[in-house]
Amino acid sequence: MARLEDVLTPDYLDGLEAWSLDGVRARRDEATEVETALSYVRRMVQGRLDIVLAEQESRRVGESAGDVAELVARLPTILGDHVLAPGFGRLPTLIAPGDIDPPLVSALEDALPAARMSTLAELDDADLEVASHKLERLERSISSQRRAVFEVLDRLQNEIVRRYRSGEASVDSLLP
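-> structure tokens emitted (176 positions)
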């Protein structure tokens, strides 16, 4: 599997017009896997951020922190605003990522470790604020990287479409 840094290198698409159609499709599949992993990690970041923000709001209005069972019971409400994202999006061809670049996982764990999610009530307000800022920055960074990967995917898809339109590729070649 290609890594994010591979897909985003300036030379990833060098010579694209000269590649075989199978080569273009293979690169598109690689970039799609990278985008799926980015999307997955981004949603994990957003989920953690939503939970942190809910904890901050609870503190602002003077509600008790509750325990893990209460947090789990509140998750549909906490995460509800982000179930349907605005915009048209893209229909995923992969549901879940295969491998995720270790740097992405490390960045998420550095922002707020998964093990810390069940003990947010133990964090003081300042630490909770730091965690929310780290998660917000990470979400923006991943979103930016996703946009860059989408640009790569668009170029690859446009090359495939160009070949079919020009007659360089034929639908007949897809049939057994």
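The radius of gyration is 21 Å.
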